[in-house]
């Protein structure tokens, strides 16, 4: 066990949840510097920012190893989505994380997307 | 690193479907049954003027509300991932639905026939936004079984809105609801072309 994970345990409680007020994490900021939605994608670029990361930034970066969504990072960090967006946008600002809108290439009401969705769901029946 | 430089193909399309309905109607149960991961929960902190909720003598106080959103995920193929978001049922969270419904393909309105009025807010909201939806009657054990046309009449639904029966606990049954929704999306005209006059709030009640 690393000293870092011990630190996390100090501040998280399975039943009570987070023991630090959420906005402490984002230093009171509620507006991310990069616009993100709940389903915006994030992924670590592999660039390690200089200097020491705040613990929550470190955890968030660790959760972005494979492409994932803002909503999933927020849920796994047990942070409100608004706070998670601030943390992730900090990481975007230093080049450690890349973000992308939910569906950049296509209109989500595009027929071909809906047709593939239908096939995919039917395969689960 | 270089693979991420400019292309946007490092992640699939995140598609969104909303699961709406009154409190306790089975939204999270439905998400649990269909999702490939245990449902996740995120919270939105919302600051809002509390007009019409708990205010005294018309004083619109600013209040901060925490709204929990449960969601699940279904990987469709290499290019698409479907997220199901449980939409809070209470009327005063409509402003949240606005953000939630942005970019959503459509919605499932879950209904408990013992408490039909609980879903009025959701039906009104989606109708007024031109968001396509279907009504899924969650057949609770011991509940009186209404037939779909009775539900349609009680909710004042247009003939084009599908009504299906389901067991939200059952993966196959709940997934069939999603299949029916996507068929409806493929068959119905896009909301942009539909002449959907906004519904007055309170019309239904």
Automatic annotation (TrEMBL), chain B:
Pfam families, sorted: ATP_bind_1
Q: The organism sits in which domain of life? A: Bacteria
The record's section on InterPro entries has: Gliding_Motility_GTPase, Gpn, P-loop_NTPase
Which keywords does this chain's UniProt record carry?
ATP-binding, GTP-binding, Hydrolase, Nucleotide-binding
One molecular function GO term is: hydrolase activity
Instruction: Quote the PANTHER family the UniProt record gives.
Output: ATP/GTP-BINDING PROTEIN-RELATED, GLIDING MOTILITY PROTEIN MGLA
Family note: Belongs to the GPN-loop GTPase family.
Task: Report the protein name in the record.
Answer: ATP-binding protein
């Amino acid at each position: 066990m690393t000293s870092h994970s011990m630190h996390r345990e100090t501040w998280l409680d399975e039943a009570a949840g987070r023991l630090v007020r959420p906005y402490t994490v984002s230093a009171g900021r509620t507006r991310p510097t990069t616009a993100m939605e709940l389903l915006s994608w994030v992924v670590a670029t592999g660039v390690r920012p200089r200097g020491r990361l705040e613990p929550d930034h470190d955890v968030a970066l660790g959760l972005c190893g494979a492409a994932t969504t803002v909503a999933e990072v927020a849920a796994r960090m047990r942070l409100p989505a608004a706070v998670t967006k601030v943390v992730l946008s900090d990481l975007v600002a230093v080049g450690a994380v890349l973000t992308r809108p939910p569906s950049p290439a296509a209109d989500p009401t595009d027929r071909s997307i809906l047709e593939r969705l239908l096939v995919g769901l039917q395969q689960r029946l | 690193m270089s693979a991420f430089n400019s292309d946007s193909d490092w992640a699939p399309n995140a598609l969104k479907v909303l699961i709406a309905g009154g409190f306790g109607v089975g939204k999270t149960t439905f998400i649990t049954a269909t999702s490939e991961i245990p449902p996740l929960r995120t919270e939105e902190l919302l600051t809002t003027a509390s007009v019409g909720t708990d205010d005294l003598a018309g004083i619109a106080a600013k209040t901060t509300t925490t709204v929990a959103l449960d969601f699940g995920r279904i990987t469709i193929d290499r290019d698409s991932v479907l997220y199901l978001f449980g939409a809070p049922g209470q009327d005063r969270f409509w402003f949240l639905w606005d953000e939630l419904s942005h970019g959503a393909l459509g919605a499932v309105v879950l209904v408990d026939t013992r408490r039909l009025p609980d879903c009025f807010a959701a039906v009104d909201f989606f109708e007024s936004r031109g968001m396509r939806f279907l009504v899924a009657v969650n057949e609770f054990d011991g509940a009186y079984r209404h037939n779909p046309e009775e539900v349609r009449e009680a909710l004042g639904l247009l003939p084009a809105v599908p009504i299906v029966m389901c067991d939200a606990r059952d993966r196959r049954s709940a997934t069939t609801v999603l299949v029916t929704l996507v068929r409806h999306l493929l068959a119905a005209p896009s909301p942009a072309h539909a002449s959907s006059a906004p519904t007055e709030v309170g019309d239904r009640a």
